[in-house]
Amino acid sequence: MENPFLGCHPTDPIPDPFLNQPKLFRFLRPPRKTTITPFLAQKSKQKQPLPTAAASLKLREHGGHLQQAITALEQGSPIRSRVYISLLQSCIDADSIEDGRRLHASLCAVQDCNPFVETKLVSMYAKCGSLEDARRVFAGMRERNLFTWSAMIGGYAREQRWGEVVDLFFGMMHEGVLPDTFLLPRILQACSNTGNLETGRLLHSLAVRIGLLDSSKEAHVSNSVLAMYAKCGELDSALRFFEKMDRRDRVSWNSIISGHCQCGGHEAALRLFARMRAEGIEPGVVTWNILISCYNQSSNPDLAMELMKQMESSGITPDVFTWTSMISGLAQNDRMNEALDLFQEMLLTGVEPNGMTVASAISACASLQALDNGKELHSYAIRIGCSHSILVGNSLIDMYAKCGRLEDAQRIFDEMAEKDVFTWNSMIGGYTRAGYCGKAYDLFSRMESSGVRRNVVTWNAMISGYIQNGDEDQAMELFHMMEIEGIRRNTATWNTLIAGSSQNGDPDQALRIFRQMRAFSVRPNSVTILSILPACTNLLSVLKVKEIHSCILHNDLQRDISIANALIDTYSKSGDIEYARVVFNGLSGRDLISWNSMIAGLVLHGRCHDARDLFNQMKQEGIRPNKAIFASVINACGLDGLVNEGKKVFSNMTEEYQLSPGLEHYTGMVNLLGRSGRLREASDLIDNMPIEPDAALWNALLTAARIYGNIRIANLAATHLFKLEPRNPETLRLLSHAQALYGKSNDASKVPRAKKEGSINESHGCCWMEVKPKVITFSTGSQVTMNSESKLAEINSRIMDTNEVIPDFDGTILEIEEDSEDIVGTHSEKLAVAFGLVNLPTFRAIRIVKSVRICTNCHTICKLISKLYKREILIKDPKSLHRFNDGTCSCRDYCQLL
């Protein structure tokens, strides 16, 4: 049978008499028995005479001395119910449950026992904190009235056991007892705190039908209904009820404003606030605090601070909750110094902070690793008596741990009389961050035996600690143990593993975990995406990037500017600049990182003209470029050989934008000048630099000197390179090639010795290509099975017979000797290109990742193949990305010489 009352709405008739409820309630009274329950049994079946007036007065006098009165009762003195009730009230006032139990044991002395005595017993037990005793008395009562139910519901409400409050309400209705104006708000509060909108609507309907919302009644019932709708997120119903209220006091306005703040309607809350003042109701400190807290929680502490100033201007003095909200709001928005300044200002105004205020200030010190300030706050907490609170203790443990004072953190942990899960988590997290996973695991093991259940944050801290220390096996073991222990793994758990695998150089493992996360229907967040995208920044991952992009769209994360910026960067590095541009063009709001990622991506792919156009567009939109953008634009000018424009960009950086050039800018300028053969100018630039040149800068000068045959400058650059990187094989290789190409020099004798000492590796390395579902490895001289040997021979023959002329950077033409044994079968990249021509569809680009730099010969062969076969070839080596298309390379034939 369906419960007819649960479907009621405020306009529906109330089912009457509420006796046909099929729902089973937790607090139904037991079936009647033939004998009186011993709990309430009277001492004798024979009717005893009522105590004399003198005896009653004597007991009343003893009521002033509770112990003497109880002793008299225990000796068998009879007592009237009203005196007994006053003694129970004395137990409540003294919060003495033991005296209350002694009185309960003497219940048989009450000659005129009635439901009011039993109700007072229930109230005594409930108010003295023994709900189980109250429940036993309540369950044994034969007659329960409104006061009995109110006492029981009030006890559970004080303990914030809101689910039982709702159950009691249904039990009360089952017995035909209706709530009054005192009890109904408590039940509505239970619905608010449990989000029980259905029961809340039922209570609203009941209040309408029994007249508890009449204008003549107290307004607190209407305010409770309004607060219920607001806290349950039912703003439309809350607004309708609010507009129909005959009387709206400050509490009413606070409820509707708080409801909008809770649901994210900050602007609507401000409009209601203005309307409240316009209707002549001045907001009190609670109203101001609601708005200030709302804007702090919505990451807008500036507006919250402005509201606090308006509050003071209107004559309302901020209380401790106002200051605490502002301090914690600034700390939560990473404005730690301002939070500490505000704490000092609070002390100067004479407002004494509470534990929450001190804890927020200590947390700010923890984030700043400001140990001295943290120790001062610790002393202050001891002085005002809040150092032993769990909240302050947890903050102190976290602060000392983050400041590297694990001994102090452990001492506070050991001294805390009461510890919650946050206490344990703070201490475990401190040890894992410091790399002491063994000590963290000891605490982790002790935690369960101490009676505090480990939560998902505890497990995440341990997993993160093992990941950071490179122990992925132990991290994975804990990860699997979570399922066995019944701990639901949250998004942060998966994020920790994904980020750890990516940072530890295992992108494939990171991607497997990401896919497993989705298979478990765990919704990824922005941290997930930002952790997995770095694992896909190579040419073999473009399909994986698109898979992640699809996940971003599916979970509506594309509006996050940090995710969009990461996508632009990842698409660029994975070789798909067109998709990067699509993401960039789709941004409604671009920040500096968006522009930087897009410009750098265009330069990486050799689209330097587009990069310079985007740079000019950015300036036209009033966005001030930073150093990274200037470095990209200088490189773009260098690739296109625009010396004058590059020099102008370099000078504008310092003169117009007052930015000091860094090593990356000077390296770009040396490349720019070196490409155009201005070696003397490049050398002078290095001599006049205000900062010390690094290896990359000397490398750029050495490359330019090699190209233009300037052995003197080449040896000068090499000398400095040897000092900076004496064992770098790449440095030795560059000088060796320069001297071999241009003959002897004064320092020629150094080459053999340097070569021997540096152990130059002449290996041409290996490379990889993805042919779904496998990644194939190619190494120099290896034989890879082709689908057709005749196709391989056809590629060799076609290259030999071609009349195409493919010049290098310096204008030299590649000569292919007639007796060349196997043009496409020598170096690993040429093997991979040939394999791609045979096995990949013509519409798909050939994507190759190479372990060492591509040589000049292979570079030219790839240009030639791209033109002969009309195929796009992308090769990523440790130095740069080469995009071959129609006989040209995005590096302008220069990067392979670096």
From TrEMBL:
<dbReference type="GO" id="GO:0008270">
    <property type="term" value="F:zinc ion binding"/>
</dbReference>
<dbReference type="GO" id="GO:0003723">
    <property type="term" value="F:RNA binding"/>
</dbReference>
<dbReference type="InterPro" id="IPR002885">
    <property type="entry name" value="PPR_rpt"/>
</dbReference>
<dbReference type="InterPro" id="IPR046960">
    <property type="entry name" value="PPR_At4g14850-like_plant"/>
</dbReference>
<dbReference type="Pfam" id="PF14432">
    <property type="entry name" value="DYW_deaminase"/>
</dbReference>
<keyword id="KW-0677">Repeat</keyword>
<dbReference type="Pfam" id="PF13041">
    <property type="entry name" value="PPR_2"/>
</dbReference>
<dbReference type="InterPro" id="IPR032867">
    <property type="entry name" value="DYW_dom"/>
</dbReference>
<dbReference type="InterPro" id="IPR011990">
    <property type="entry name" value="TPR-like_helical_dom_sf"/>
</dbReference>
<feature type="domain" description="DYW">
    <location>
        <begin position="816"/>
        <end position="894"/>
    </location>
</feature>
<dbReference type="Pfam" id="PF01535">
    <property type="entry name" value="PPR"/>
</dbReference>
<dbReference type="GO" id="GO:0009451">
    <property type="term" value="P:RNA modification"/>
</dbReference>
<protein>
    <submittedName>
        <fullName>PPR repeat</fullName>
    </submittedName>
</protein>
